[in-house]
Amino acid sequence: MRLLFLAPAKLLSEQDKRLYCTIVGWFHRYNSLRWLRRLSATADGPVYLVTALALLGLSEKGQHFFLLLAAGFAIELPLYWLLKNSIRRTRPCHQALGLKIDFEPSDRFSLPSGHTAGACVYASAILAVYPVFAPLAFAWAAMVGLSRIGLGVHYPLDIVAGAALGIGAFGLVPATLLVA
């Protein structure tokens, strides 16, 4: 019975590594590292705080956005740390996959992608408060995830898991907070 489960998991892992190598190879072929670093940095934690604080003063819906974002991150961050430190998947840049990676991540483990999870929490809050900007926010979140693969620090499935975590965590925000 265990062999039936292991074969698909191994196949999925191999496909994940192949797709990773294809994406990283494509970005490196076009010398995109500087662009990828900048894009990835737009999903660093302080950026969320700065933009949320700016919206407090610039928008009548800013307080609602700030509260939703805080609630979403209050749910997402503990789950992220629990998953990352339980699963302990080695980052691709720390494995011998035949690719030269010039970017060093802040921690050792890759699953789930915290940048992608945070970007999806942020995009979900945008959807709830400023729905007209939601397509741009989710496109940005997808590009953040892609940048993390291109930088060599995440596999594609790490990105999918991060997106699911961020959107799922925001889905757990109490309904009373969702109403302005």
TrEMBL record:
Stated EC number for the protein is 3.6.1.27
Its membrane topology? Multi-pass membrane protein
From the record, what ranges are coiled-coil? Answer: none
- Annotated Phosphatidic acid phosphatase type 2/haloperoxidase domain ranges read 66-174
Q: Which domain of life is it from?
A: Bacteria
| Keywords linked to the UniProt accession | Cell membrane, Hydrolase, Membrane, Transmembrane, Transmembrane helix
Q: Indicate the transmembrane segments per the record.
A: 64-83, 119-143, 155-179
Judged by the first EC level, this protein's enzyme class is hydrolase
Subcellular localization: Cell membrane
Cited Gene3D superfamilies: Phosphatidic acid phosphatase type 2/haloperoxidase
- Pfam families listed in its UniProt record: PAP2
InterPro entries, per this entry?
PAP2/HPO, PAP2/HPO_sf
Reactions that this protein is recorded to catalyse = di-trans,octa-cis-undecaprenyl diphosphate + H2O = di-trans,octa-cis-undecaprenyl phosphate + phosphate + H(+)
Report the CDD domains cross-referenced here.
PAP2_like
Please identify the protein, giving its name as recorded. Answer: undecaprenyl-diphosphate phosphatase
- What is the scientific name of the source organism? Shewanella corallii
